[in-house]
Model the fold of this input.
Amino acid sequence: MVELAVTVGGLSLANPVMPASGTFAEGLERVIDFDRLGAFVTKTVTRELRIGNPTPRVAETQAGLLNAIGIPSKGVPYFLHDTLPFYRKFAPPLVASISAPTVEGFASLAAEISVPGVAAIEANISCPNLEEDGKAFAMVASSTEAAVRRMREATKLPLWAKLTPNTGDIAEIARAAEAAGADALVVANAILGMAIDIESWRPQLGNITGGLTGPCIKPVILRQVWQCARAVKIPIIGCGGIASAGDAVEYLLAGASAVQVGTATFIHPTAMPTIIDGLTRYCERHNLERITDLVGALNVEEVDQEDVAWVGAA
Ligand SMILES: Cc1cc2nc3c(=O)[nH]c(=O)nc-3n(C[C@H](O)[C@H](O)[C@H](O)COP(=O)(O)O)c2cc1C
Done:
């Protein structure tokens, strides 16, 4: 028997596999056994009602998906009265993803959503900070620190900070989130991109730019998980292009304690249970008694970081 249980950011999970925010919904219950998942992560909830971005909202690329959904949200009352009761009937803990345009907005939403049935809060700080220059909170260490610190004061629930990959030094952002009291980091959200229709000369997305997700982003996010794992002591949840048990193993080896699966579920709705089964088989094949033996076990000679920087620049 392989032990798949992990503890991550204040939660005990039966296994390390959970959905990525916004790529999972209640209707999937008809296709997979929800009780098999490590946790649930909701679509990002905002205080205000939001209709989202103009269409088209998604465009396929060679090895991934571009989306500019724009976080349509039915608001907090819908979350409390409809979303929450639905998940109560299942065993895995529910992680509520939240977002706001200001530091105080994040803090008051974190407080409001800290109700029985919510096991942890995932702060999607990849959204614009309207009090500063409109850059995403997680692009700037000081905005990250301010938002996480106020949320930390506003809730006793485990607090996960979901970082954006669209920043120059993600390790610095990770350290800021840890210093401000985050219990775990989710690394990461989508990579900014765009696609153009060469017949109409128009952008393929109504929003012009969007977030790139799926297999093509895995090497980039894997590298960021590795960098964050070296920078902080709090656990990391890897998220980016995971479509197989092998992908999940790579993330665990790089230092993630758990993983989130997003775009892969659109292609194979049963991707998550398949990955969970594959992790058990992988551990059996490698004579591992527990999945946690993989976390951060990357076999690497210490390299001079200045050399790494130069190789990256070549
Ligand atoms: C259609 C779509 C909607 C998404 N909505 C959200 C969201 O509401 N909140 C959030 O934090 N991330 C959202 N994401 C980002 C995913 O949670 C995840 O970070 C990203 O897709 C990378 O993982 P993947 O390559 O496995 O898809 C969304 C992604 C997609 C494709």
Q: What stands out?
A: The longest strand covers residues 94-98.
